[in-house]
Amino acid sequence: MAEEIRGQATKYAVVTGTNKGIGFEICRQLASQGVVVVLTARNEKRGVEAVEKLKGLIGLAKENVVFQQLDVMDPSTIASLTCRYAVVTGANKGIGFEICRQLASQGVVVVLTARNETRGVEAVEKLKGLIGLAKENVVFQQLDVMDPSTIASLTEFIKTQFGRLDILVNNAGIGGVTADADALRPKQESTGVSSLDLNKVAGALHNPNGNLEKVN
């Protein structure tokens, strides 16, 4: 996803029943060709082990292959595979708004955040109009990155509505755009204030079988 946002075409593949045999070999061949592979299996433990084995075989980077639990007879696991959730901070205009547009146009459910509620709601409506989004594809949540109470509210909203977080983009103006758990650790910027403490959101809500995506 990060590569596509930067304008580079990246291919993604989902392969079912891939913790062993032919499925595993298909994953190996796809990943070795630069395809980002989602390796799926019913058994979580075996699936995770297969991912680690695959990475060891061809020296893959962490984000090149991920595991997602999937039982093809269980609709809930199918829904979990197909839906992805993103939070973008400082997203009512500029770069943040454009990131929201690109993510939403690729089928990601986007939580657009901003300090100003009126401007945030207006941005959501504008976004829906631009790409004809369904009501549930993009939502607004008020967030002031320096206000712990709004971060707590955002965390609870994501937990209640989606149950997890797949993509986190910090575009709120304190040290630029970052988006993974390690990059979101509290640190002192040149302004003398703590950067956004969304690492708690990331740590608590990211998909344990996948990776929180980094968007630069």
TrEMBL record:
Short name of any one Pfam family annotated for the protein: adh_short
The UniProt keyword set, sorted, is: NADP, Oxidoreductase
> Would the keyword NADP be found if you checked this record's keyword annotation?
yes
- Could you list the residue ranges forming a coiled coil in this record? none
Annotated Gene Ontology cellular component terms: membrane
Similarity-based family:
Belongs to the short-chain dehydrogenases/reductases (SDR) family.
User: What's the protein called, per UniProt?
Assistant: (+)-neomenthol dehydrogenase-like
Specify the taxonomic lineage.
Eukaryota, Viridiplantae, Streptophyta, Embryophyta, Tracheophyta
What's the encoding gene here?
Answer: LOC104248896
